[in-house]
Design goal:
The complex is a heterodimer of chains A (164) and B (184). Chain A is mainly alpha-helical and 164 residues long. Chain A contains 8 helices and no strands. Chain A is elongated, with a radius of gyration of 18 Å. The two termini of chain A are 25 Å apart. Chain B is built from 10 helices and no strands. Classes of the chains: A mainly alpha (164), B mainly alpha (184).
Amino acid sequence: MKSVVTTVVTSADAAGRFPSSSDLESVQGSLQRAAARMEAAEKLASNIDNVAQEAYDACIKKYSYLNNEGEANSTDTFKSKCLRDIKHYMRLVNYCLVVGGTGPLDEWGIAGQREVYRSLNLPTAPYVEALSFARNRGCAPRDMSSQALVEYNSLLDYIINSFS
Amino acid sequence: MLDAFSRAVVSADSKTACIGGDELQSLKNFISEGNKRLDAVNTIASNASCIVSDAVAGMICENQGLIQAGGNCYPNRRMAACLRDGEIVLRYITYALLSGDASVLEDRCLNGLKETYTALGVPLQSTGRAVGIMKASSLAHINNTNSEEYGGKRFRKMEMKDGDCSAITSEAASYFDRVISALS
């Protein structure tokens, strides 16, 4: 999976050389920035149920027609699946924060996303609403430090963009 | 290829769980101890040719048959191949040490190595011995405990801040052991 370290190792290996000082330099750079990401990952992991629930509630509130007969949020099974989807995205955000790249989201969230939602006839606007609610809900320093919040929000923006 | 962080992600994903608590704590340790790791990689990479040639020479000293006619290091061509392989193995070990995960070493170096050596008639025991010597000298370099007694004319001490390097040392040792066990 792509990260700063694996990129460095791949290019060193392609050239058949030992890790050079510039390789070590770039790894160190990523480690220095990692503390904020870890903080965001930790805060998100400890509160993921609430974050997902609030985001889900917000999107159902805006698109209340989804509760109507035959719509995507009409039965209890559908409701729990919608909530589960939001939670999946949050979990992938947690992974991306840990890895320090968008690898987990790309590989497990975004690849094939359009095809799946089309074939299941799901609207994507509610997902966008849920994720942007989660993004606007985060607040520094109440939830996490401002640098951590920047990392967290940029990943949410990344998913939101993938829906358009 | 994985590193310590993506390894944690892959194992958390198999349980559909978030990464928090203990796992995150060990990654935070990885970050805070990062400079030790970089110093360790640097000290091995900087002394690589010395480590490798010393290991191959040591292996031959213990088993002179290798450089007599019919031995596996006999003409220069085969000795050169031996030195080259030692350097390759050490290089993949530095990659594993840098990424904090053995996957790059396993996938790109050890996978099929034993079968290749068996097919080419390379003696696995001698190879294992050479890796063992590389391990000893690399660990001495990481801890800066290499001495003039062993280093002789080529003795060199790196400029590093002293500290507790037991964790990174045992991690490095585990990668060397992995190579040795893959060859036996």
